[in-house]
Amino acid sequence: MSNEEPVTAARRRILVGVDGSEDGLRAVRYAVREALATDSDLWIVNVIDETAMVSGLWDIVVPYQELEQIGRRLLQDALNVVKEEGFPAERVTSEVLAGHAAEILAQLSAKAGLLVVGRRSITGIERMFVGSTSVAVAGRAECPVVVISASSTPQRTGGFGVVAVAISSWPPHSAALEWGAREAAVRNARLRVVHVVPADPGTPASAMSEATARLDGELATLRQQNPGISIETEVVVGTPIDELVGLSRSVDLLILGVHPRALRGLGRGVLAHSTCPVGLTR
User: Fold this and answer.
1) In 10 A of CB 226, how many CB atoms?
2) pLDDT tens, 83-137?
3) CA distance 261 to 107
4) Distances (CA, A) of 113 to 9, 50, 144
5) In sequence order, what are the residues at sequence separation of 6 or more whose Cβ sits closer than 8 angstroms to the Cβ of residue 74?
6) Are 98 and 50 spatial neighbours (Cβ–Cβ below 8 Å)?
7) Contacts of 9 (CB under 8 A, 6+ apart)
8) Exposure letters 99-137 (e unless 16+ CB within 10 A, then b)
9) How many CB atoms lie within 10 A of CB 37?
10) Phi and psi (nearest 5°) for 114?
11) Going by C-beta distance under 8 Å and a sequence separation of 6 or more, which residues neighbour residue 262?
12) Averaged over 150-170, what is the pLDDT?
């Protein structure tokens, strides 16, 4: 097990959790492109979940050394992807750590500028190397998180030229908007700020126009601070999860503001069904 610190303390660090799945490797590819675009270092971590070393189907305990060797092989797979993507090897740190994956990644995220994880289901022996779901990681991280799935997002992202931020409450989540503006600038993309008015018989007919006017007013400062970015607003009526999942089919990144310690129903639903990477921030 390595106790190395990330490569360059002065440079922004992107933390990636890998578990040997294609979803984890998809997260690595995403993180590499983000690191290249933002001049960041990579910090790739595999976490051995020691609490799950005994499966209900097993009669023996797998030796820790064997698990560590497997973890290092999984890290090497990730490093091969980094090399294929052309990222400088001297700007990469990799580690095998032991503990509960969600807790370890959440702790490490305090020293990172971004955490990228793959989204997958977890059963049986997979718990040895994953330890938790991406939902648990995203809900506890100290830095912004991007969750991506190899199955729902197999294509290389970035083809739409649009970054979206979903606004679910007033005032709008400032950290989410600021992150969206930064991503749009780095990607040379448009920023689309979307608010969904829930379809409810009790919702007045004026709700949509009022929400549009309020959203435009709330974004005035953001527009002034980012004159080079095209910032669009969109207010729609419908079921928030359904509308945002639909939106995910036409954007490169969908950003949500979340509760510091837990993901609400909206965040969980979007994570489960989104077809683009999902960014979550406090």
Assistant:
1) 19
2) 999 999 999 999 999 988 889 999 999 999 999 999 864 444 433 333 345 778 8
3) 13
4) 11, 27, 7
5) 18, 19, 20, 24, 46, 129
6) yes
7) none
8) ebbbbbbbebbeebbbbbbbbbebeeebbbbbbbbbbbb
9) 13
10) -160, 145
11) 139
12) 86
Rounded to the nearest integer, the mean pLDDT of the chain is 85
Q: At what angle do helices 265-273 and 240-247 cross, to 10 degrees?
A: 40
Separation of CA 140 from chain center = 12
- Output the pLDDT for position 124: 41
> Please, what is the end-to-end C-alpha distance for the chain in angstroms?
32
Q: Phi-psi bin for 88: left (phi > 0), alpha (psi -120 to 50), beta? A: beta
Cβ atoms of 134 and 117 closer than 8 Å = yes
Q: Are 94 and 2 in contact (CB under 8 A)?
A: yes
Find where tokens 């950003």 sit: 255
What's the predicted TM-score (pTM) here?
0.87
Give yes or no for residue 249 having a pLDDT over 50: yes
